[in-house]
Each structure stands twice: as C-alpha cells, then as structure tokens.
Amino acid sequence: MQIYDVIIIGGGPAGLAAGLYAGRARMKTLLIEKDKDGGQIVITSEVENYPGCMEEESGVSLVARMTHQTEKFGVERAQDAITAVDFSGDVKVLKGKKGEYHARSVIIATGAFPRPIGCEGEKELIGKGVSYCATCDGNFFEDMDIYVVGGGDTAVEEAMYLTKFGRKVTIVHRRDQLRAAKSIQEKALKNPKINFLWDTVITKLKGDGLLESMVIKNLKTGEETEIHAPEEDGTFGVFGFIGFLPQSSIFEGVINLEDGYIPTNERMETNIPGVFAAGDIRVKDIRQVVTAAADGAIAAMMAEKYLEH
User: Fold this and answer.
1) What is the per-residue pLDDT across 117-141, written as a single tens digit (0 to 9) for each?
2) Catalytic residue among 137, 145, 280, 295, which?
3) 14-23, 64-73, 96-105: least confident range
4) Do the strands 237-240 and 224-228 form a parallel or antiparallel pair, or are they unpaired?
5) pTM
6) Which domains does the chain have, with CATH numbers?
7) Is position 53 annotated as part of the catalytic site?
8) Options 86, 136, 143, 176, the catalytic residue
9) What does the pLDDT read at residue 45?
10) Alpha helices of 6-98 — where are they, by DSSP H?
C-alpha cells in the first residue's frame, strides 16, 4: 500500500502552493484535483493584485506557472473526486471515485463554488443564457444585453469585463448601493455601458432551450416586471456573482465546520492532528489568490513539522 507523507485535495492556488512547498521539502506528495487546476482564479480575466504577476496576467496564465512550479518539485498528481474520508487513524484514508489513497497528513484545499442566484428556472438554463463565469461565456453574448447579479467586488469587476462583449451591461442589485471597493465602484459608475437596477432581484428565468425572458421584482415597491430578449437577438445573458459555497460536504461529521467552512488556527491546523486546511475553504475574512497561496505554504510547512514529531 502506497502511503504518502501528505495528500493535498484541490488544485487551486492554495493546493498548488502547498504542493510547491511540500515537494520542495522532499515530502512524498500527492495532489488530487477532480477537474482542472486553478479553482476560481481561472475564471478571472485579469489579475493585477498578485505580487510579482506579469502585466496582462490572467488567472489561466498565473495558474499555469504555479502548476509548472509544483511539478518541478516532484509532486505526483491524480485526477479524481474524493467522495469520503477517514481521518481517525495515524494514516488518513481518502476514498475517490477511481481509487483509495493513504497519507500521514492531509491538506484540504477544496475551495468554494459560485452561489446560485436562487430563482425559478435558473438550473434549467445554466449554459443556455445563465452563467457564473464571465471569461468562459462572455463572448457568447457579443453585442447583446447582459445582466450581472450582485454588488460586491467580483460582480462589479466582472460586469466591467463583460462590457467588452455586451452592448449594454446592467448590474442587478438587491440594495440601493454597491458593496464593492470604492475604487472599483468609481470605475463602474464612469463606464457608459454599465447600467443599474437597484433594490431588485430576479424571481424567474424563462426560455425554451435558451434564456428568452426574466421576471424582476423591486423589493421596495413589490412591482414585478418581465424583461424580454430583443427580437433580433433571441436571448441575453445573466451572470451570477453573489458569493460562493464551500466544497466541504464530504467532511461533515468528520471535522469541525462553521457554516460549511473549516476553522483553523494560524498554523492551518484543523481540530484533527495531521489534517490542515488552506484557501477559500477556511473560515477567514479575506479570500484572494495571495491569501490562498500563503495558506497553502503555511499548511505544507506545518505538515512537515507534524511529520517530524
């Protein structure tokens, strides 16, 4: 039976940074990712706040270089979805769809995924007008109307990015003012292609195969309005950016959770010895690439110390 020094679950910035530090420390390391590397950062079109990033850096290009660094230090890889874990013994057991994995320590870096808008018809129209990824799907709505749901940093930044494609981008926000950083708000308010629907939520999305209309509700007046796709377009885009849901369901009842997130101390230790958490899955105030990478580095170094003792 193959027993690794450390297994990292998740290939986002936290997992890749953990792999880099673990591999460099000559620990026998396996990084398991169910899909492709990058997590949420790969859907970011432009990265300008990561220290040392190149000009015109995208999430994809940044992650590609992180992955290369990790591979350089001998980290083994497995593409699998972990479905159950057993952390009760000195050797931790991870059960995936393709196999079973064993390690003396584990770093959880499973991240979080987009929160649904929460309206009728949303699920049926995902990929047919409804999206949560501007860089993935923005070009499908060239010269069309686009609606962005949310009012935080991500929503406003992605709305500005979508103005490259849509003829008009409307931010739909349930409050009467944005929550985004002032510098981001200023850019958006000056952008002639961005409009706003304040105190508004989407209650229903309609369409037969493609998104054709949506019903919006003003939360102050209670008035509902149906917005139809322009006849010449036949459809329009609705992008949801209202936060994330932690990918932690397989850890319920196994380790301590707070609202689905994993609490740790500053050493990234969970309540179970030998099990660490890093990145967006943690209980934390700031979720950025730089903080995720820092978490991953700390988790790997603390895993090394754990193994030494």
Assistant:
1) 999 999 999 889 999 888 778 888 9
2) 137
3) 64-73
4) unpaired
5) 0.74
6) 3-114+244-308 (3.50.50.60), 123-240 (3.50.50.60)
7) no
8) 136
9) 61
10) 13-24, 59-72
